[in-house]
Amino acid sequence: MGSWTRTGAMEGGTAEPPAAAAAPSAAPQPSLATGGRWAALRPALSAPVLGALESGLGFPTMTPVQAAAIPLLLTHKDVAVDACTGSGKTLAFLVPAVELLRRRERALGPWEVGAIVITPTRELARQVDAVCTQLLRVVAAADAAGGRPALLHQLLVGGTDPQADRDSFSQHGANVVVGTPGRIEAIMASTPAFNVRELELLVLDEADRMLDMGFERSVNTILGRLPKQRRTGLFSATQTRAIQDLIRAGLRNAVRVRVSNAAAKPAAPAATPGAAAPSAAAAPSAAQRTPASLRNYYVICKSVDKLSHLANTLAGLCNSHAAGGRCKVIVYFLTCACVDYFTKVFTAVPVLANSPGLRVLGLHGRMKPAQRSKVYRKFCDDISGSGTVALFATDLAARGLDIADVDWVIQYDPPQDPDTFVHRVGRTARMGRDGAALSYLLPHEDAYINFMQVRRVPLQVWDASVAPLSEAVSPHTNRLLEQVKAATKRDRDLLEKGERAFVSYVAGYQEHTCNFIFRWAAMDVGQLAVSFALLRLPRLKFKDLTAGNDKKAKRKRGSKGGAPVVPTVEFTRDPIDTNTIPYRDKQRERQRLAGLKQKLSRPETKESNHHHSANKRRRNTESTGDGRSGAQADSSDGGVDGTQTTKEADDAAIEMLHSAVAQDLEDEDDMMRESRLLKKLKAKKITEAEFEEKMAALDAARESARAIAVRKQKKEKNGPHRGSADGRAEKKLSLRQRRTAKKRRTKAAISRMRS
Known about the structure:
By secondary structure, the chain is an alpha/beta fold. Helix content is 45%, strand content 10%. It is built from 24 helices and 15 strands. Helix 11 (336-348) packs antiparallel against helix 17.
């Protein structure tokens, strides 16, 4: 579709603008280090837009990214903008969008869409729409005097009634549309009045995140419906390989604009007597990807100490801001379940819930849209006089959101994708303001510090003096986990949330992109369970517990037929019978007790309870292909009558962990072998007959290995019901189903290659 050049590449905001954006020699050029004034832009902005920016919105000068991108879009260039967070990217595409629509010789009709802005999340779309509303309102006031029709706009996001969106567009129309990919795609397909033939500008904001979230199909569908003669802008803080592919496929005469904030660092304050000089690690690099006004700390601690350190830090921030106003903090966790659990911990455990001046909110993608919007607005519009308000969130709140006056960003868990690190810490230190970030790392994750340094994200050792603790707070932190366990014994909801959080963390940790740093084999699972204040160990499935994902080690282990390496899980179960822990919600507790009573009232329950539990444990250790996630857990501890002893339940859980690990590793090896055979067949290195023969040999070897494992298990544990006729029939049926499914997949693969 066109060449992809670097004529617009800029570093540190100090390079000259590209030739396409250059002004005549007689006109003064804006300085990219400071952005310059809006009036210095060439092509010049119209008077209403210029007045709206300087007077209406209160932005007298541009930022470097605005000075670089706006002239390119106004001179028929597609752009791919790579700028650090908080650099003013929103106005960098909204200003040219409004200016291009106002420059048309024929004004757009109500149902003619002239600009579309696509964002990955609803929150970011609402934020962009809010800025667009302010800009268009001020411009419309100026246009009204000249008799020019005002530009219309509409927000299209999920979580609302799509029919209401269709009716609103059909009735009022819109010239500027802001929304998420799925809803925009749906409205375009189902609304005949949605006219894009006159489209001037398409903007993909946070484009890399959009592709990572699985919106590639929706984006491609939207691109297929748009006219080719348009301007396109891709805006993000990171440029991935997927973005480069999209640039080559969807942009014409593309120019890449890269602007960093290294030159925008404010003047350092004068040194005070006795103050320590800044460390070398804190000195910003000329090409660093984070704002120069950001203090980026890290702390290395054990998993059991993270919760106490977080509580200390938040209490210290409350203490330091008690007399100096409020402090806004965003705390990032790995999964939605972790957000739910730790929000509950900080609001239900008395020693944390009663922390003076601390208020905690939770935000993640699995919340209902109305609840998400309510929490987001509550955090953004917090008007309390003093103290600390903390938003516990997932990466949902890591991209593009411009929340005013965020003072601190704390990463309780590092992100799965290292590119997300920049977006997380970018929620603070925006537009030249000061900010601070803190990241927690486990001892075996210390290589992450140098890794981020190489990626131009410098970190410095944590300085506890920035969040000092008062003497009244520090004594309780050493026994914090015991107090959380005590609260768990009084509230079943906290118990279940903790187990779900632990299970989701185990699954999420194994999905780290940097698995050579975040090595699951180095994780102490027992200590990890203690850090979640668990009373019992949930039942889990692991993808792999060997050192990394070493394919050579797996092939070596598979060729010799050796057993996979399974670490020892040391965890002491609490002696309490978890069936006796009630819900604090009386209605939920009544429902739970009614369910237990119904189970106990069945005639066969008491007699066959032990047999049912044994069969259930055996099914959980097999990969039956029933569609369940590999990280799902069964939190029950045995029969509902509570006859299973604490030690037996603990041993059963540990045994289940080891068996699940071994089975998952064997299945992964089988998939690798089958994948290699399919690649050889596709490359015509082997014939179809050879492929069938090798697949049959693999099936035979697999069945032989499983038969040996079954006989060994029967010999070692000749417990009741393990060798019953029902158990053999169930096992035989399971094997037959797997063989049938495998033959079906093989035939489908061969037919695809033939076609």
